[in-house]
Amino acid sequence: MGSPMKIRASVKEGVTEIKVLMGHEMETGQRKDANGAVIPAWFINEVTAKLDGKTVMQAQWGPSISKNPYLAFKVKGGKAGDKVSVTWVDNKGDTRTDEATVT
Amino acid sequence: MTPRLLERRQVLTFLGTLAAAGFVLPRMAFANWDKAAFDARTMDEALKALGAGTPGQSGDVQIVASDIAENGAVVPVQAISKLPNTERIAILVDKNPSMLAASFDLMPDTIPEVTARIKMGQTSNVVVLVKADGKFYAASKEIKVTLGGCGG
């Protein structure tokens, strides 16, 4: 399930700006633990964002994205009250979706 | 340390690597995730896997990031395309083990400006690759890293 995302979305002069902070370890698979064993890779690899039910972005990520990933982007259109939903899937098949309302 | 111990450790490490690979790989088989591109170990391989070949450098592709990153674990990067019909923006880090950090597919209403935070193991060129109107363009910027982001 992961921890809840923080999503902020605001519309200004016809452009909706969406900012997302996710909670995820984003383990690279390059690191070793104290015993020298490789810590398996564990990272978000797909992200989908929707505005008012319409997909506006689909991202593919690798392990080079920082822990607790941040994502910001802008979309033409949108209005106060529209729903923004963001879904991520990680390489272990875990997934989480969170919603916010455009202000 | 005796040679025998060393040998045992190497065997264990090897088994560990196999187990890790076996554990992770089947789960990576997602519909969209471009495994070949993310597994690429050289910039040429990564660009080829993304279908970009040798992209032309373009002033319409911009990278907004500071010249020096104090903490390589968290390097904010904004990738901007001024090109019409930008369909895709990818961020690559030349000297990372996995150089493709992210690839964003944009819809027509999405403004081609994305911000993300990436890890950088060491000072490296960061490349932003843009696909617009079916063609590829790129820009690169060197970011100096004072503390690497891929260690412990």
UniProtKB/TrEMBL annotation, chain A:
Annotated Sulphur oxidation protein SoxZ domain residues: 8-100
Please give the name of this protein. Thiosulfate oxidation carrier complex protein SoxZ
* Taxonomic path: Bacteria, Pseudomonadati, Pseudomonadota, Alphaproteobacteria, Rhodospirillales
Automatic annotation (TrEMBL), chain B:
User: Where in the numbering of this chain does the Ig-like SoxY domain appear?
Assistant: 49-150
The identity of this protein, by name, is Tat pathway signal protein
Q: Name one Pfam family in it.
A: SoxY
Where would one find the signal peptide in this protein?
none
Give the species this sequence originates from: Azospirillum thiophilum
